[in-house]
Design a protein that fits this description.
PmbA/TldD fold; six-stranded mixed β-sheet; 9 helices; 39% strand
């Protein structure tokens, strides 16, 4: 498969160079199985295959882009890209990746996932459903997704990058009776390998739902807050936008003029690592053919760098950090994280907390202001901590504060980390957030 894709990419590049001097070919093939769960049944299962090619050209400092899923129309797609370039704006910051050598990124491909069929994936979903029922929970929704992605990037500067990866994920949401209502919780897990367990996902969801029953109100006030993995990732998403060079250059980042300053807790180090072993977003190159790398963004609380793709790096007069991300062959690259690692040197376990909350998840985190960092969100599956122990579930509460200030006074509450989307993080303790009961 990869050999055939390489040939198509080179053929297309050869045709493109008859029309322009600068061209880039991005070829992608994805094969996956998606399973959807509704209530206690598998609602549908389908095999999905997509195969397409995106072409970017630079003509007189203008960028043109076109894509196709019909590989018999390569020349017409090139002509479309050239046509689009003619009506684009002149920008000297358009550039393609130079020829490079690539790192050996380990354990991002599992042949067991490649060989999965619909029945195998449905079985995983049914195991989550049945485990939930055995735990006396009612499944309400969920799903399983598994597949492989192969990409080839070739350009007129000699770049040839080939990547193969696999992915597997499972998710379930459950209810359990709670007086006149219900208690709700969800759990998920993702991996590059077929090493996640359906029973564990369902059992964890049911345990949280069960423990959340008979919630009590909590008094309004400022408290120490332990953000569990999903809750932490929800808030870190807002914070991370400030490390994106595109936001910095557009004046949408609070950190735009803060390089070299201490902006976060001195115990916090932040890295973006596209070469991470088994990382969910690891690859030998980014979506532009720039070699993946590990970039230090924050060191002991001091802001050291931002993440860049080729366009923003040229605009900023710096080197790309290998963060030109593509959602698919039908899209152009933009700045995006690979695996963003939050590494705290200070540990503050729950046993040290006299009075506070541990929050499993947050509702409404997407409404946080990405520029100011202000947020007001509803807690989901929150528990009151008293004298170092979880005392009781909290019925309903809101959290409010500022994510940038919160991370100035944060530490890890666990040694164990998890990857949630692009974020690899521990449970995070914030010294004080406003809790509204």
């Amino acid at each position: 498969m990869m050999e055939m894709m390489d040939e198509i990419a080179q053929e297309t590049l050869g045709i493109a160079l008859k029309y322009v001097k600068e061209a880039e070919i991005y070829l992608e093939r994805e094969e996956k199985v998606d399973v959807d769960i509704q209530n206690d049944q598998v609602d549908f299962a389908k095999e999905v295959s997509s195969y397409g090619l995106g072409i970017r050209i630079i003509l007189d400092n203008k960028m043109g882009f076109a894509y196709t899923t019909d590989l018999t129309k390569l020349e017409q797609t090139i002509k479309n890209a050239v046509y689009n370039a003619k009506f684009n704006v002149i920008d000297e910051n358009f550039v393609f990746a130079p020829k490079s050598t690539y790192p050996n990124v380990k354990e991002i491909y599992d042949p067991k996932i490649r060989d999965l069929d619909v029945e195998d994936t449905v079985k995983f979903a049914k195991t989550m459903i049945q485990t939930s029922i055995n735990e006396k929970c009612q499944p309400t929704s969920g799903g399983v997704s598994a597949g492989s992605i192969n990409t080839v990037i070739a350009n007129s500067d000699g770049v040839l990058s080939k990547d193969s990866s696999t992915f597997f994920s499972g998710f379930i949401s459950v209810n359990i009776p709670d007086g006149t209502g219900v208690s709700t919780a969800n759990e998920s897990d993702s991996s590059r390998y077929l090493d996640i367990d359906a029973q564990t996902i369902a059992q964890n969801a049911c345990e949280v739902a069960r423990d959340s029953r008979n919630g009590k109100p909590v008094e309004t006030g400022d408290m120490e807050i332990v953000l569990d993995y999903n809750a932490a990732a929800a808030l870190v998403y807002t914070f991370a936008n400030a490390l994106n060079a595109d936001n910095v250059q557009r004046g949408r980042s609070v950190y735009a003029d803060k390089l070299g300053e201490e902006v976060l807790s001195s115990s916090l180090n932040i890295f973006d690592d596209g070469t991470l072993k088994k990382g969910l977003n690891s690859a030998q190159s980014d979506g532009e053919g720039v070699p993946s790398q590990k970039t230090t963004l924050v060191q002991n609380g001091v802001l050291k760098n931002f993440i860049y793709d080729l366009y923003t790096s040229r605009k900023g007069g710096v080197q790309s950090t290998g963060n030109g991300a593509r959602s698919s062959f039908a899209d152009v690259p933009s700045v995006g994280f690979s695996n963003l690692i939050l590494d705290f040197e200070e540990l503050n376990e729950i046993s040290n907390i006299k009075s506070g909350l541990i929050v499993k998840d947050l509702l409404g985190a997407h409404t946080a202001n990405p520029i100011s960092g202000d947020f007001s969100v509803e807690t989901m599956n929150a528990f009151y901590i008293k004298d170092g122990e979880i005392a009781y579930p909290v019925k309903k509460a809101m959290l409010s504060g500022n994510v940038f200030n919160a991370l100035k006074h944060a530490s890890a509450s666990s040694i164990k980390t998890r990857q949630v989307g692009p974020f690899i993080l521990p449970q995070i303790v914030v010294s004080k957030l406003r809790v509204v009961g």
